Amino acid sequence: MQRVNRDTHASQDAASALELRVALIRQHFPPGIAHLYAIPRQGRDGVLEWWSELEGQPHLYATLGREQQAALLKRYEERQAAVSQLADELQRRDQAPAAEALRTLIGRPDLANLYSINDEPLVIRWGQPAPVAAPFVVSPPPAPRQPAPAKPKPAPTPKPTRTRTVVMTERRRLRLWPWLLFGLLLLLLYWLYSSWPVLYQRWQGYTQTAICTPGGAFQASEFAVVLDTSGSMDQRIRVKKEDDPWYIGLLARIPYVDELLANNQPQRLTRMDVAKSSLTAVIGDLDKAVDMRLVTFDGCRSPVDHGVFGPGQREDLVKRVADLNARGGTGLGISLQAAASKMNGRDRDGVIVMFVDGRDSCGTSVCSVSEQIAKNQPRLRINVVNISASTGSNCAASNTGGRVYTANDAAAVAAALKEASQEVAATGCP
Question: H or E segment at 302?
Fold first, then answer.
């Protein structure tokens, strides 16, 4: 923990006034997003101080190079998008006060209050009114020397006004307004006509689940899961109290996990264990009309496409998931590209759920891949279950109209994956 700034211009009551939003940030966000906002504290002398848990030398935005400034603003926008998504989710869960409190944190950064610590953005004076600058008083210039009075010239004879000409001009202008408005109306109608397919598709995305393709006979959505099987997935993950019946029941769906629950002794539960158990629960909830494709990593080599599993192959798919191991690099970009290449996304709805725990380490930009997917496959959405502090993969969701789900403990991870896959769960489509 380090002090970044002593704010002599801030309100003396600022620290207590911001406690609610600080608590909301720490409760709902992983450290990678929560660290965006500096922690306000009241100093011993009553001066408000801004602290950060980030380690490294703070650098003001204005002292950075152009490339560093651009990268810092991009990371700031990514974290702002996560805050907006969480606020929307709290609103849907009837937690309006918390949602409104978070929305006060969303906006363009004040570059004078933006720092970089090891390339991570840090904002101070958030939630504070801008200080009122003292009025700038300009000294009057010295009085010029008075020239000698000149002889007055005779006043020119005024020309007769052309009242009739002015009135005719105004009438012509008034006559043009209806035609201008009519032309704007025609342009608006043409834009609606040309953009109707895109607008209709977006409206369908808000009013229907992706499993039901509108128009004609029912056609189930395509569904694929891109599962991170990199070496970092072997790290331990926090487990909440074992009195969570939903999560314990979820773990019990895979037989080999039973041994983790055999006694009350602390057990080593990895990210991979939770991913497998959660994905098995998702498979059990899939609609009978939905097939599922599974794509996993093979380091930085070509990803492993396990193929498409129909309703009659659910047990085989569960066994395939249970046999997965964590090893190698994080090939996010190439795995997403491989999954999307096997899906339609133009004449048929599709959903890809990416379960990731870090940035791509194999040289293929997830953002660039998802931009191409949005351009070439507009009916394909990507939901990201991100269990790391890194937000580098969240662009896949924002570029395609999907959502980002974050979690940092076992039960939350399971719930996030379940919610991200809900669009193709057993929803009872007609």
Answer: none
Contact (CB, 8 A) for 73 and 109: yes
Q: Give yes or no for residue 200 having a pLDDT over 80.
A: no
Q: Determine the Cα–Cα distance for residues 175 and 233; give it in Å rounded to an integer.
A: 71
State residue 159's pLDDT score: 56
Burial class (CB in 10 A: 0-12, 13-18, 19+), 37: buried
Average pLDDT over residues 156-178: 60
Domain edges within the chain: 2-123, 222-424
Q: Which superfamily does 222-424 belong to?
A: von Willebrand factor, type A domain (3.40.50.410)
What would the two tokens of residue 81 be?
Answer: 């998008």
371/400 Cα distance (integer angstroms): 8
> What is residue 362's predicted lDDT score, i.e. its pLDDT?
87
Q: Are 97 and 35 in contact (CB under 8 A)?
A: no
pLDDT digits (tens, 9 = 90+) for 403-415: 888 876 677 777 7
Report which of 91, 103, 77 is spatially closest to residue 25, judged by C-alpha positions. Answer: 103
Q: What are the structure tokens assigned to 143, written together?
A: 């009085």
